[in-house]
Amino acid sequence: MNRPDLPRNINLASWFVDQPAEKYADRIAILEEDRSLTYRALQSLVNRAGNSLRRLGCAPGDRVVIRLPDGVAFAAAFFGALKIGAIPVPISPLGKISEYISCMNDSGARYAITSDLDSASAGAPRRSDVQVITLDEETGTITRTPWTQAFSESSPALDPVPADGRSPALFLYTSGSTGKPKAAVHAHHSLMHANYNVGQGVFQIGQEDRMLSLTRLFFSLGLACGLYFPLFAGGSTVLNSEPNDPRTVASLINKYRPTILVAVPSILAALEKAARNWLEIDWSSLRFIATGGEPLPPGLFERFKSGIGVEILEGLGSTEMINNILSNRPGEGRSGTCGREVPGVEIELRDENGAPVEDGKIGTLYVKSPTALLEYWNKPAETARIRAGEWITLGDKMYRDPDGFFHFCGRNDDMLKIAGEWVVPGVVEAVILKHPDVDYAIVTAREDKQGIKRLVAYIAPKGSREVTAGDLTRFVSERVQPYMVPSIFVVLAELPRTPTGKVDRQLLPRPEWPEPSN
Predict the structure, then answer these.
(1) What gap in Å lies between CA 508 and CA 493, rounded to an integer?
(2) What is the pLDDT of residue 205?
(3) CA atoms within a 13 Å half-sphere pointing along the CA-CB vector of 325
(4) Confidence at 296, pLDDT banded by 50, 70, 90
(5) Overall fold of domain 423-507
């Protein structure tokens, strides 16, 4: 892979839309429902979107909240804002109205391209609901302009506004699964490096690739795999706003024949189970499946590889790093690992004193990458907390095996150290998942009534099967050391999830601890 020197002044819309439109004008860029869009047509829509915002007063540096379902309208709004030098702020279209207002206030946005807020509780927004909301800060006046009207009055020609590659390009809110969401501010060069590090360096996306990302566009991995990775390569992307239930996903795979599928493990598990029992899916077009966001169960990896014949590539990334920093490679996928460093990224595992740890020993993950966030917006203390010079650490615990593959063990807040040894939640989860009646498991640390951290396991049973805490305790006790057995098993019908599909740890119920003995 050739990585050219990135230009100092660059506009991301020019890089990911204009330049591909010159090379691949009549190739299909986006497929959505029964609609296909060429690169030339996408460029025209992006230009109209940018001109629409500019006519409403949007200027370089202004934040623009984008609250839209995955689709052409999102792509036009996102790149249109970038093209006039504005800063897009993608958020979930199905979040609560209070969350939308909070993001508007936190980001300081004066503009929002959003679906009808009154229909938010009714399900996926309709394209006809889309409007531009403009806030006049001096008068407090809010103006609503229908998106179709703004488009019809705007030109399809637009010159990009040059931007310093190291200046802010977009805000991406963290998922909030371990705390209140924060806006990670990313530079223009951040997306460029992510494209070369992962899109080209690992996935090797080309003109013949067609990507289907079930991870939504407002999420960092979905934005890359659903938009700018395939667009840069001259490939195509399938955008879908419907819920990712097995029947819908199977229909998309069978109809569009993607070469790369991107999905979190929980969606893959539901898809594989449905395919085994009742749903017909033709997997033959896939080169591989990319996953992340939560640990991939080893059994699921083997069922896809051996039973279906498709390799799953697990990786590890974060909103703060905008994409994967670790990943398995096509043809080299290894079960139970996050793979190796992606090109352009440096990784260190350090102990409590900041010294590097040996292979096989658990340490805290430190990352040096040109994709790292510039800052958390308006949160200097939070930014300082994760920085160590040029390095970033988010508290992930990992170890590297002798072959150079990294294994995720949990986060600092979830770890317990007993008798001088770390208890690894992921290892305990893997044991629990071997139980025939368990569909999903999360093991984490919680403080008991005396303030002592103990292991708690949250369990989702398979289908209508029944599983008891006593049975699980016996099952795990037979397979691990006593100090690794969770103190409490909490059985839930299903685990709560964020809009990105990750388990929402903030919504996991507090365990009912027994009264301490005298």
Answers:
(1) 12
(2) 98
(3) 26
(4) confident
(5) GMP Synthetase; Chain A, domain 3 (3.30.300)
Residue closest to 199 by CA, chosen among 332, 344, 319, 89: 344
28-32 sheet: strands from edge to edge? 35-38, 28-32, 236-239, 210-213, 260-262, 288-291, 312-317, 324-327, 340-341
In angstroms, rounded to a whole number, what is the distance separating the alpha carbons of residues 283 and 268?
13
At residue 217, what are phi and psi to the nearest 5 degrees? -70, -25
The token pair at 67 is 């609250």
The owner of tokens 């005298």 is 518
Is the distance from CB of 201 to CB of 179 less than 8 angstroms?
A: no
DSSP state of 232: H
H or E, element range at 291:
strand 288-291
Q: Is the sign of the CA dihedral 109, 164, 18, 261 positive or negative? A: negative
Residues whose CB is less than 8 angstroms from the CB of residue 388 and which lie 6 or more positions away in sequence, other chains included: 354, 366
User: For 380-404, how does the pLDDT look when each residue is reduced to its tens digit (9 = 90+)?
Assistant: 999 999 999 999 999 999 999 999 9
CA distances from 420 to 286, 362, 416, 453, 480 (A): 45, 12, 10, 15, 17
Q: Read off the DSSP letter of residue 7.
A: P
Is the confidence at residue 130, as pLDDT, over 80?
A: no
CATH superfamily of 12-400: ANL, N-terminal domain (3.40.50.12780)
Predicted local confidence at residue 3, as pLDDT:
67
Strand partners, 422: 417
d(CA 211, CA 209): 6
Enter the tokens of residue 18.
């204009």
Residue 305 to residues 22, 136, 312, 439, Cα–Cα distance (Å): 39, 55, 7, 19
Q: What does the pLDDT read at residue 194?
A: 96
- Domains of the chain: which residue ranges? 12-400, 423-507
> What secondary structure letter does DSSP report for 408?
E
Q: Which amino acid is at 267?
A: I
Beta strands in 351-452 (DSSP E): 363-368, 375-376, 387-388, 391-392, 396-400, 406-411, 416-418, 421-423, 438-447
